[in-house]
Specification:
Layout: H1 15-27, H2 31-38, H3 42-99
Length: 101
């Protein structure tokens, strides 16, 4: 008896093909229709859509956080310049007070 399991070869799909399928899913086409038309399991289609949605959310949150970081950096740079100016004023004032003694 041959106890070796027959393994199915995993199908690989091109990223462009997946993107087109995801666009169809997002546009409202029925998963069952797409599954029958292209011969792709429905659970795989749902997985692709979920992963696509998650990636989109991550990109949005990354861009928001980088935007917030840019604003924070600009504020800190302005604060540094203000502190440098204050320090220079204090140095001059100390010099004037020291020389008047």
């Amino acid at each position: 008896m041959d106890n070796q399991k027959k393994s199915k070869k995993r199908r690989n799909y091109e990223p462009d093909f997946k993107a087109e399928i995801i666009k169809m899913l997002i546009s409202g086409k029925k998963v069952s229709e797409i599954s029958e038309t292209f011969g792709i399991a429905e659970n795989l289609l749902y997985r692709w859509k979920t992963l696509s949605t998650m990636k989109a959310k991550v990109k949005v949150s990354e861009s928001e956080s980088s935007g917030k970081a840019s604003v924070e950096i600009a504020k800190l740079k302005a604060e540094i310049e203000r502190l440098k100016t204050d320090r220079e004023i204090l140095k001059k004032a100390l010099g004037l007070l020291s020389s008047s003694d």
